[in-house]
Amino acid sequence: MQQQDKVWIFDTTLRDGEQALKASLTEDDKVQLAHTISRLNVDVMEVGFPVSSPADFRSVQRIATEVKGPIICGLARSVAKDIEACGDALRAAQQSRIHTFIATSPLHLEHKLRMSLDDATAMAVKSIKLARNYTDDVEFSCEDAGRTPHWDLCKIVEQAINAGASTINLPDTVGFVTPDEYAAMIRHLMNNVPNIDKARLSVHCHNDLGLAVANSVAAVQAGARQIECTINGIGERAGNCSLEEVAMIMKMRKDHLNVYTDIKSEEIYRASRQVAKICNMPVQPNKAIVGENAFAHSSGIHQDGVLKAQNTYEIMSPESVGVPSNQLNMTSRSGRHVIEHRLEELGYQKSDYDMDSLYQSFVALADQKGTVYDYDLEAMIYFNQINDKD
Ligand code: KIV
Ligand code: ZN
Fold first, then answer.
1. Ligand 1 contact, 143 CB (< 6 A)
2. DSSP 299-368
3. pTM for this entry
C-alpha cells in the first residue's frame, strides 16, 4: 500500500474568520476559542494580525503565552512594522510562525499596490529575512495567487524560499478558480520552481463560488500539504474553506486520497457550537458535518434503513464528529418501524398501544403540524387508551 502523507491543518478562525464578524471578539473570547481550537489538534493556529490594533496585539500575545500545542501564528504584510509587531506579539509562544504576504496578481499590483512584480518580490524577500530574525518558521503568501500568471508565481516563490520561507501559501483570495485550475497551479509550481522541495505548499481558499472545499481537496490531490481553513467556514464575504468538512473528507476518504490529518474529529461539534455562539454566527441547518440536519433522517424509507443498519444512509457516525446521536424526525413520511423504535426508547411496550389506531392518529397529526414530538406520541397513546375503554 502507498504510504499516506500528512496534510497540515492551519486554522485561521481567529484571523480570517474573525475579520468577517460584525462585532470584534473580546480578548477573553479569543483565548477561550484558541483553547477549543487547540483541542482539535490543529497543526497551526493563526490568531490575529498584531499590527492592526493594540487589542489584536494583546490577544495574540495572550494566546502565545497561554495556549500550548499548535504552532501559534500571526499575520503581517510585507513591511517591517508588521513583521516586528508580529514577532513581538508571538515572543512567548512555544512554537511560533510569522505569516507574511503580498499581492502578486496584475490586478492587485497595478491598482492596489501600484508596483511591479519585481518590487513586490523585493519587499517579500526583505520581510521574510526580517521575520527569520524572530522565528525559523516563516510562511509566505502570494495574495490573489488564483489570478496570478503561473510563471509570475514561480519567480516570486523561488525567491521567497531562498530568503527563508518554509511554507508557501497560494490563496484563492477571491474564490474565483475552479478545482482543475487550482490543481494545475499547484502542479505548475511543483514542476517549475527549482527549490520547491524545501517548502510545504499550502492552500487558502475563499468560498465566493462555493468551491473552497473542493478547491482545497483538488490542491491536496495535486500535492499541496497544508490547508488553511476556519471552523464553520466563517471568513471574509462567503467565508473560507471549512475545517470540519476538509478534516472529515480526509478521514472518510483517506484511502482514496492517500492522505491524513491529525485532527481529533470527536472535538468538531463542540468547536463548531462554540464558534457559532461566541461569534454570533448561527450554522445553517443543512451544513455538512455540523448542521442541525447533518445526522437527522426524515424519510420513512431512510429511517427504516438506518434502524436496520446505520450505514445504509449514514456515511459517518454522529459520534465520530462529537454529535451525541443521530435523529429520526417523526413526520408524515415516518413509518411504523420508527414509531415503535421511539416508543421503545421512551419505555413503552407493544402491549401498551394498538399500532393501527396509533398510526392513524399519528399520520393525521403529522399532516397538520409537520413534526410529531415525543409528548404528542405519549398523548396519542393516552387518548387511544381512554377511547378503547369507552
Ligand atoms: O485570502 C487571502 O489572500 C488571505 C491572505 C492574507 C493569506 O487571507
Ligand atoms: Zn483569506
1. yes
2. SHHHHHHHHH-GGGT-SS-GGGGT-S--EE--STT--HHHHHHHHHHTT--GGGS-HHHHHHHHHHHHHH
3. 0.94
